[in-house]
């Protein structure tokens, strides 16, 4: 994938590019509904909310600023803001730990814009229904349209199509695969953003940039 192709994709408007296409279910959805407007009010956006059995019971909140950054200080701010809101709304009927983190380099892809910003990198995609004879896809993100993402397999299996367009409406889970190229590109984007070499676009958002480590803050909810 050439730089020209990347530029073309990044400047072509895609309908609903910044709306989450992968969302939570059950108690996770209830938590997301509570915290998402709160995050927006302080300049962040939700990536994922997940309740897990880690460390007894842990509510994992993954968030980022609109430019893709998320520092340790940002995690602390989000934790301090969300903790009293969750205490009042009380969506979880047991004691739990609140853990706030950045998406990390091998981040989940939950918005159309996530796929667009990481064109050329390898992703794993799961679908909710069988598509082209399977439900799991892995490959280089080649193109992004309003309807779906085109993936070029980097580990072709016999009988599988080497190039597949996966409709967004079928994607149940997706994330980047950690590679040397991804680490290098993420660090370069992060540096460019912090040094002001990536300008904000007309919507006030900049290109995705990931820190080399994911800051996180953990608070116990009683």
UniProtKB/TrEMBL annotation:
Compositionally biased tracts (Basic and acidic residues): 189-200
GO terms classed as biological process: ribosomal small subunit assembly; translation
Domain Ribosome maturation factor RimP C-terminal span(s) in chain numbering: 109-179
Domain of life: Bacteria
Location of the region described as Disordered in the Swiss-Prot/TrEMBL record: 189-222
One Pfam family per UniProt: RimP_N
Keywords from the named record: Cytoplasm, Ribosome biogenesis
Gene Ontology CC entries for this record: cytosol
Principal subcellular localisation of the protein: cytoplasm
Location in the cell: Cytoplasm
The Ribosome maturation factor RimP N-terminal domain, residue ranges: 34-106
CDD domains: YlxS_C
Family: Belongs to the RimP family.
Cited function: Required for maturation of 30S ribosomal subunits.
Family annotation (NCBIfam families): PRK00092.2-5
HAMAP family in alphabetical order: RimP
Annotated protein name in UniProt: Ribosome maturation factor RimP
Organism whose genome encodes this protein: Phyllobacterium bourgognense
Lineage: Bacteria, Pseudomonadati, Pseudomonadota, Alphaproteobacteria, Hyphomicrobiales
Designated gene of the protein: rimP
